Amino acid sequence: MIRGMSKFFVDRESNSPFAALGPIDLEVYDGEFLCIVGASGCGKSTLLNIISGLEKPTEGVIVFTNRKTKNRPTNLVFQELALFPWRTVIDNVRFGLEIRGVSKEESIKIAKKYIRMVGLEGFERKFPYELSGGMKQRVALARALANDPEILLMDEPFASVDYQTRLRLQSEVLRIWETTKKTIVFVTHNIEEAVFLGDRVVVLTPRPGRVKKTIPITIPRPRFEESRFKEDFFHLCGTIQMLLKEDLQYSEGSV
Amino acid sequence: MNRNLTRIPSYIDPLGSLAFVIVVLLWESLSTWGLIDVKFFSSPSAIGSTLYLLLASGKLWPHVYTTLYRSLLAFTLAGVLGILVGLLMALYRQIDRQLSVVFGVFYPLPKVALVPILMLWLGLGDAPVITVGAISALYPVLLNMIAGVRRIDATLVRAAMDLGANYSQIVVKVIIPASTPAILAGLKLAIAQSFITVVASEMISFAPGGVGLGWLVTSRGYEGDVSTVFAGLVSLAIVGGSLLLLADRFEKKLLRWRREER
């Protein structure tokens, strides 16, 4: 649960603070797939960083209710992936477990389970440079999942892969979400992606990023490729597109 | 780019050594025909037989062995110290501020110039030579270590934090492995540097009855024993080349995770 959270940065030139984000009130429900869309520079990534605890909010609080373990409640799949290039696939996936002091045999067992889940069986001993973009995405996903977070945060994870790979990865994330029953907060600027994946789509305003509107996505689950061609799908995409466009015109007018 | 500079010289490659063979043959012919003065320039065959005699009589080994262990000891000291101090300087601003002044002041100083004063303080023999070798080899390790840590992709550190790593785990599991390419580049320069400085120091700390290849070359040079001087030079080239070859092998083995840059 996010309450009254906002983030200010200090402008380097004028040395005065400016609002990058918020104030934002946002509740993430247990087990839901929440997508956040917004124009670039609206603070989407900052929001995820704050939820993950990597950055501190200037004001407000993030409250995690119903905590199940003492571990960090979230794990983040970075936009840049941030795989450790000196570690093999399995050692990347094992990283969080190793940090927590899980025995080697146990961590290998867990890592293998998630490597299988993301469809990378047989690539355990490869180094990141030997993998394609889509495969790296899968490793980053498996690494976050292996830490068993209560909330999985994803920061535009598929921004850098080609269209076909992107569609496949989206379907796989849905499948993984359905099997692991994780709560997922997924940031993207791609409206179709958000509608295809999400239970709800939060539309942010441009800087400072505030919640403009939250759209419930009524498309039935499980969703398949065919779901993309339903009238509902186009309708929802259109609604979100219009919401984003309003702000775009506004901000363009002000430039 | 950097790789090419530190690559093993091409005399290992049979075709690449063609020019070398021609020079040797020319040199041999010129001395046989009396076109150059053998007293000053010797000849490949004379150098070869001198080298063989030195080896067979066991007189060369103490020199090779001495120069080798001095270089390796200087290198080890520089390596350990450079990595530790470099890491501390890269991680702690205050340490960096204090020490960079000290290292900055000594940086432009030719390190062999310290030999005379160190001889006064530490006496003849190993101590001043190893010390100077270590000081000169310290710089490449230190500078590469610092640059390596500073160049680390900040996202990797954030990823480790996100996965639950604390400060010391980040240092051990992210910062050090991420800077291994830089560390190894520094160590490779350091092994060449320690060898060069040790030999130069042996030449300066010249005293009768000494040991070391540097000493051999200088002392025989004073006596006009050109063939032995050349035999010493050949030994130096072989020892130095072997050290670099070893360093290269070692680096390749440790950096398997890196894409081949060509």
Features:
heterodimer; A: 255 residues; alpha/beta; Rossmann fold; 2 domains; three-stranded antiparallel sheet; 7 helices; 38% helix; globular; B: 262 residues; mainly alpha; MetI-like fold; 13 helices; 76% helix
Explain how this protein is built.
The complex is a heterodimer of chains A (255) and B (262). Chain A has 255 residues and is an alpha/beta fold. Chain A folds into 2 domains: 29-57 and 66-73 and 149-250, Rossmann fold; 84-147, no CATH class. Chain A has helices at residues 44-52, 89-99, 104-117, 133-146, 163-180, 191-197, 231-254, and strands spanning 2-10, 17-26, 33-37, 59-62, 74-77, 151-155, 183-188, 200-204, 211-216. Chain A has a 6-stranded mixed beta sheet with strand order 5-6-7-3-8-9, with helices on both faces. In chain A, strands 2-1-4 form a 3-stranded antiparallel beta sheet, covered by helices on one side. In chain A, helix 2 runs parallel beside helix 4 (133-146), helix 3 (104-117) crosses helix 4 (133-146) and helix 6 (191-197) crosses helix 7 (231-254). The radius of gyration of chain A is 19 Å and the shape is globular. Chain B has 262 residues and is mainly α. Chain B has one domain: MetI-like (MetI-like fold). Chain B is built from 13 helices and no strands. Chain B has helices at residues 2-5, 18-32, 38-41, 44-56, 61-91, 93-106, 115-122, 126-150, 154-162, 167-178, 180-204, 213-222, 226-254. In chain B, helix 5 (61-91) packs parallel to helix 8 (126-150) and helix 7 (115-122) crosses helix 8. The radius of gyration of chain B is 22 Å and the shape is elongated. The termini of chain B are close together. The mean pLDDT of chain B is 88. Chain A binds chain B through residues 52, 54, 71-72, 74-76, 78, 80, 82, 84-88, 95-96, 98-100, 127-129, 143, 147, and chain B through 153, 155-156, 158-165, 169, 173-174, 177-178, 180, 256-259.
